[in-house]
TrEMBL record:
It comes from Histidinibacterium aquaticum. PROSITE patterns: HTH_GNTR. Gene3D superfamilies: GntR ligand-binding domain-like (1.20.120.530), Winged helix-like DNA-binding domain superfamily/Winged helix DNA-binding domain (1.10.10.10). This is FadR family transcriptional regulator. The keyword Hydrolase does not apply.
Amino acid sequence: MSGSQAEDLPRVPQTAEDVATQIQSFIISQDLSEGARLPSERDLAGILSTSRPTLRQAIRILVVKGLVESRRGSGTYVTRRPQESLAASVHLMLDLDLESVQHLNDLRLWLETMGIVQAIERGTEAEIAEVEESLERLNDSTGNVSAWMSADTHFHSAIVRAAHNPYLTSIFESVHTTLIEYEYKSWMDEGTVPRWLRKTEAAAVTAIHQPIVTALKARDEEAARIAVLHHHYVMAQHLSASRPA
C-alpha cells in the first residue's frame, strides 16, 4: 500500500480511555513530577492529535483515578506518577461484583476512621492546617465538578496522611478512588453533573466536611468518629443513586 493510499484510509476515532492512557504516557515521557502543570487543553489536544471533547473526557477519567487534579481557574496538574497500584485490584473486585459497593464503602469508613483517630494523636499542627486549607479549597470549588472532586480527594487523603502510616494511606486512597470512579461514572462518560453537585445542592454536600475539620482541630476523637460516620452515610446515599440501571 502506498503512502498516499494509507493517508486516504479513515482515521479510527480515539476513545477517551485511549487518550487517558496517552496522557499517562506523556507524563512519564516528559518526566513530569507531582505538582507539574499539564499543557493547556488546546495544546495537549494538538500534542495527542485528538479532539478537545475527547480530551476533556480523558481528563475526567484521570481526575477520578486521582492521577491528575483540576484547579479552578488554573489548569490541570499531576498528582502522582501513573503506576500499577492496589487500586487496580480493588477496582477489579468491584467490577466482578457491583453489588459489593456498599461493602467497599464500609471499608472506606473503617480506614478513614482509623486515619482520623491516628491523625488526632500523631498529626502535626502543619498537617492539620493542610486539612483546613483543603476544606477552603473544597468550598471554593463548588459548582465545578472536576475541581470539586480533586479538592475532595485531596481533603480526605490529607486527613489519612496525617496518621503517618503509608500503608494505611495507600489502601485508603485505592479504596477511595475506586468508589469515586463508581460514583461519578456518568460524569466521566457523559459530562453530566451529579444531582448532589448541582449548584443548588453542592453547598450542603460541602458542609458535611466542616465537622470533620472542627473535630480534628480540637483533637476530639468522639466528635471525629461521628463526623466521619455522617459523611459515610451521605456517601452511601450517593453510591445508591449511582447504581447502574
